Amino acid sequence: MCGVWWSSGVAWWCVGRRRGDDGKIAGVPFSVAGGVKVDTIAAVRDAGADVAVAGGAIYSAEDPAAAAKALKDALTK
User: Fold this and answer.
1) Is residue 68 within 8 Å of 53, Cβ to Cβ?
2) Residue 71's CB: how many other CB atoms inside 10 A?
3) Predicted pLDDT of residue 37
4) What homologous superfamily does CATH list for 4-75?
5) Which residues, in sequence order, are CB contacts of 63 under 8 Å at separation 6+?
């Protein structure tokens, strides 16, 4: 099972299970949308993503501001 899927526009890749650096190796800019949350955002960053879209993690949270801060804090660890 995959942690987070992302698309380079050419192929789909899995972040978080086998190789966390697939995006860096592919050498193409990419963004990740879907499945981005506090416990996956660091893996998305480490894979080389240029943008991480964490819409559901923020907008479905009881406190969206706190959820956004938690995501930002997870990136600085």
Assistant:
1) no
2) 20
3) 92
4) Aldolase class I (3.20.20.70)
5) none
Radius of gyration of the chain measured on its C-alpha atoms: 12
Q: Residue written as tokens 């800019």? A: 29
pLDDT digits (tens, 9 = 90+) for 15-57: 544 455 666 777 778 888 888 999 989 888 888 888 889 989 9
DSSP 9-57: SS-EEEESSS-TTHHHHHT---EEESS-STTTHHHHHHTT-SEEE-HHH
Taken in order 70, 61, 17, 46, the sign of the CA dihedral is negative
Evaluate whether 4 touches 34 at the Cβ level (below 8 Å).
Answer: yes
Q: What is the pLDDT of residue 10?
A: 46
- Provide the Cα torsion 16, 35, 33, 31; round to 10°: -20
Q: What φ, ψ does residue 58 adopt, rounded to 5°? A: -95, -55
